[in-house]
Records
---
Amino acid sequence: MSRLLFLALWSIFIMTSTPSSAQVAVDSKYPNPENILMMETTKGPVVIRMMPDVAPNHVERIKTLTSQGFYDGVVFHRVIDGFMAQTGDPTGTGTGGSELPDLNAEFNSTNFGRGVVGMARTNDPNSANSQFFICFDDCSFLNNQYTVWGEVIEGMENVDELNRGEPPAQPDKVTSMKLAAPMAPAMENEVHMDTDAAASVTTETGTE
């Protein structure tokens, strides 16, 4: 009887501890998959490498909102040719955000080059919340004024195809955004606690 119980427990351990073939493929393709975002858009997939070493709080915020499905279905409400494409506002107006508190700035020395991802904000440096933008070209004039937290490593050609406008007449969407590696259960619990305690944010957000 004890041998049967041991075998049953061992099979459960194997089932819960062995990564799926899909996860193994992600892990082998992208080092540190916990810092990889898989974003699907109406123009195709985009892969973003997050930079917790330079903007840990902003990366944590993106992971938190992504795990909640916050970005799924959100439009690119501001897309300026030669500049950037902005998303992350569930209202699609550029004035909305999440229910989590605003973030303090984490300006860093990373250059705002093509494919770099930064957090949008108001005139207050400490007002970033959920909106972010992807640079089409060199945007180094934004250096040390906005927080860089990631970089597109695949699919920039799909970003290039996003419909232009402020807002676009027919805006493209983030159809889904997921983490390449799921958040740990402990972190997920913290996410729920933070959400319950947070105040709503409705300040206008954007890059000027």
---
Amino acid sequence: MAENSCLFLSYNEFQNLIRWTSQIPQNQNLNLSQMILAAAGAGALTSFALSVYSLPPSRRILDGE
């Protein structure tokens, strides 16, 4: 659940960032390469955020707590 919410939120924000930097109106769709860039950024951010989020429980398991 956290993964999906993080992914969709970051994807939307990356789309807004691309629209802002390219000066594209909010109601206009992005082209395929721009959507791929937004998806790649969202995936990378989600992967980083969730790895940091899941690290403490993993360390406790490995330490035998």
---
Amino acid sequence: MRLFHPKRCGNYFNEPNLLQDDIRGFLRESGQLEWADIYSTEDINWVGDFRQLLKDFIKNKGLDYKVLERWCSRSDYGAIDKEAFSRRFPPKVESIGIGIQVADVAHWWIKQWDSSEKIELGLVSKTKWPLALSNLFFPFLFYNFHALYAKAIGYKYLGGYCRARKCKNLYLVSTTGSLPKFCDPVCRNRENVNLFREKQRGKIAPVGS
């Protein structure tokens, strides 16, 4: 899913609203039109942590697990790798003694099916679906940081800031060579044109010299 692709992280760093747009697009593609119209990330304080982790990555700083664990724990990372991620609310209640029955009613649950691209989202209370969706999307989004630092297969990326004078966007690129100077061909071509024009103007002697 492009929503969770590591390269997309740079886009979310530069324009956080794109994440909400992508989630809504995903919901529309899944046939959940009613949810797509009203789902919002505005009440989820993810941007600051996300940007901090991405800045640390491109500066080759160590992974801040204290921040990352808020969104995707090391056990979540392992579970997603094994295609066995699951969550529920409230958490499963264990019996506190023999012969004592404990009510165990889930309002929602998430289950990733082994060796399948399908993820089951179960709802008992329909009013809880935004919380359930956020507990699905954000662990997978922040999973990227575990995988990037581990240089997992498909996650060998470098990051930097675009050197174009009118851009300065952060970007990630999969490369085995040196880091490109620009975030995309548009910025590179624009900068080359500007450089060419500056050189041409330098060849014209000022009047009266």
